[in-house]
Hints:
Blueprint: H1 2-6, E1 12-17, H2 21-32, E2 36-42, H3 46-56, E3 60-62, H4 66-74, E4 78-81, H5 84-87, E5 95-98, H6 106-115, E6 119-122, H7 125-142, E7 146-148, H8 153-166, E8 170-178, H9 191-197, H10 201-208, H11 211-224, H12 244-247, H13 250-257, E9 260-265, E10 273-278, H14 282-290, E11 298-303, H15 312-322, E12 335-341, E13 350-352, E14 359-365, E15 381-385, E16 400-401, H16 407-421
Parallel strand pairs: 1-2, 1-5, 2-4, 3-4, 5-6, 6-7, 8-9
Antiparallel strand pairs: 8-10, 10-11, 12-14, 13-15, 15-16
Helix pairs in contact: 6-7, 7-11, 7-16, 8-11
Amino acid sequence: MREQLRALDTKINVAMAGAGAMGRGLLHQCTVTPAVRCVALADIDLEAAIDCAEAKGVPYEVVSDLGSLNDCIRKEKLAVCQDAALAARAEAADVFIDASNAIQDAARFCPVALEHEKHLVMMNAEADLAFGPYLMQRAAEQGVTYASCDGDQHGVIKRLVDDLRLWGFDLVMAGNIKGYLDRYANPTSIIPEADKRNLDYRMCTAYTDGTKLGVEMALLANALDLETPVPGMHGPRADHVQEVHDLFDLGVLWEKHGPVVDYILGAEPDGGVFAVGYCEDPYQQRMMEYYKRGDGPFYIFYRPYHLCHVEAMEAIATAVLEDRSLLQPEYGHVADVYAYAKTDLEPGDELDGIGGYACYGLIENCANQNDAPGLPITLAQDARVTTKIEKDEKIPASQVELDNDRADVRLHNQSLALCQSRPMENSLSS
């Protein structure tokens, strides 16, 4: 890919939403990757976007309308603005990256990027989960690519899965390795850890209470048609990823559910990911034993790191140059992440969404939601409960008041309707 980029006559121009930790990293990566440049950066906190540009030493101008934005880019300066929908309309931009953690705002500006025929790459996993099937379909109609970004766990796991399938193995488990879990973490309790890591308090809370883990694994489930064996997955504690053989009855699990998503807790390699493949070919089994991968027929393949923004450029370049997606919800809404109460809730209490005080999220199979659908955690911001809900109880969608005219609710409903009317098909299965 590096040589392919070096051979380009023109640069790949990137417009981006989000000037937080991930946006800063992506802006840096755009300056060091051959033939890639960031032409527009938007953040609702304009000072954060300005600080991001200044910290990297990138020439920039603050703009507030389309004419000045396009003029700024023509002068080879970074156009900095508050409105991501404005950045999404940049004439010069080839690809739009959502690196924000906004869900309601993303429902507004992501469709704008597609309307203006920009390839859309999602580093915003929550919006990717909430609206992915709709945005994927809209991208296809516009002749552009919709893709989850590389670097985060779900993208890195997908590459492992692609490898083992190429080798002729069957996928048994797509796995994550989580360092620490506290379902009841909140933006106050997380302050010391978040400050140490220079993270937003709500973002760090979502990492710690397991919601982000569920979102990432739901994206994999929707891309690869995987089940979660139990709500929230099993997540046994382990010292090393090789203990997966002992912690899961892989044969029973596979027979009952087919390929699944799951995770292990506290294991080495910290920050890594894994996938379990099945192979019963005698020759291949002998070679796997020779290569010190065990005697089979279940084999663990793992990678000891994921590098977030560092690895993102390949997914972006692939979308633009090859019109190909690393990961997208080809099976629709197979799994989602539903809200559970972090504390006892009373009628009238307002939910504060992902990474807040009121709820955490657990991944579940959507097929199990027919009788009593849960409230997707991606829609839990500003929802009001109408009945008493005890701590750790699932929050039913029927027991919350939600503004159905809200952009994110409408787009989520359109995404669900699309999946129900025309089920997605994985091109690899045809």
